[in-house]
Amino acid sequence: MNTHSPLPAPGAPLQHYVSTAPFDLQSVEAMTPEQSKVFQASQLRLMWWKFRKHRLAVVSGIFLAALYFGIVICEFLAPYNLHTRNMDYIYSPPQRVHLFHNGQFVGPFVYGRKMTLDMDTLKRNYIEQQDDVQRIRFFCKGDSYQFWGLIEGDRHFVCPAENGQLFLAGTDRLGRDVLSRIIYGARISLTIGLVGISFSFLLGIVIGGLAGYHGGIFDLIVQRIIEVLQSIPSIPLWLALAAIMPITWSPILIYFGITVILGLLDWTGLARAVRSKLLALREEDYVLAAQLMGARSSRIIGRHLIPGFMSHLIATATISIPGMILGETALSFLGLGLRAPITSWGILLTEARSVSVIAFYPWLLLPMLPVILVIMAFNFLGDGLRDAADPYK
């Protein structure tokens, strides 16, 4: 018995059965809601999911975001004005914050102090007066300031008590609050890393990209220049370039000069990394297809080659930024970087260059703490971003 369908008559049209319904991928292979969520997620969403699994990187990102937001409103956050001097409290050690006085809850407060002078060592000694309770005020009026040098204001997040003192990180040789100066110094130390890395990335990607994509005599010259720059010790080169800047320059010009110096010395490593990557990627078929379609070299490098190793660039950026912060700190500490009235963490550390000062007033080393925390946070953030940049691994 023949079970096959009869053949159509000669000349008769063939019958086709085509569904006009839209194609549904889930009808081919049934997926659970969890599988569908991952399958239909965008690249950015996949990167975010992988990044937030790196808890240390997330915490570091929040910490850095809070710091960079703080430099915008540092005048409001600082208890004192940057230049306020408390001449009766020179080299005053940090004060402890208390909540209870004689067994009763008072709220955050500090005890007043009385200064005595040790005639043998000429060291100032500050004794807490247990009967002088000075409650800390919040969202209060204090020292006047100019917000970003433009708007007059006197509101602070935290202030000392009326006719009281609040030195949570101690004072320096001029009686200036160290905590307030650390908050103000963050504006310079943190932004110099971002501006410097922007300049460094521009040079590294452009020069390294052209050298790796075109090769030839340009690549040869670039490699010799990089080898010469990398063979010179960093600190003497920093000192030589910093010494070139005239002492008559304004603080703003010195700031941009230090930024350019840090950028000029940091682009070589990135340029060599970009060159090595492009030497391998330029042989891919999609690069040849872009060339045959008439794409310019700048478009091929920027749209097709650079995104291929974006994770490496992200890791390089997060490592280079703390390196530039350290570079500015080192130059300022040696007296060849930024100069007063600009305030940075490096300038604050110049107060602690003497061994005797460190022995008697160790709190002057506190500006070193935010430098360490920022560098660690950038490194942890870089680890998380580098892993998240390739979510399919």
The helix-and-strand class reads: alpha+beta
Q: State the helix count.
A: 15
Please report the total strand number as a whole number.
5
- Which CATH top level class of the largest domain fits? Mainly Alpha
Multimerization status? single chain
Biggest sheet strand order reads 1-2-3
Radius of gyration, Cα only, in angstroms? 31 Å
Helix-residue proportion: 40-55%
CATH architecture of the largest domain: Orthogonal Bundle
Describe this structure in words.
With 393 residues, this protein is of the alpha+beta class. It folds into 2 domains: 98-166, no CATH class; 180-389, MetI-like fold, CATH 1.10.3720.10. It is 53% helix and 13% strand. The protein contains 15 helices and 5 strands. The chain has helices at residues 25-28, 33-39, 43-53, 55-70, 74-77, 178-214, 216-231, 234-244, 251-281, 285-292, 297-305, 310-333, 345-349, 355-360, 368-388, and strands at 98-101, 104-118, 123-135, 137-147, 151-159. The strands form 2 sheets. It has a 3-stranded antiparallel beta sheet with strand order 1-2-3, with no helix packed on it. A two-stranded antiparallel sheet has the order 4-5. Helix 6 crosses helix 12 (310-333), helix 7 (216-231) packs across helix 9 and helix 8 (234-244) packs across helix 9. It is flat, with a radius of gyration of 31 Å. The two termini are 58 Å apart. The mean pLDDT is 82.
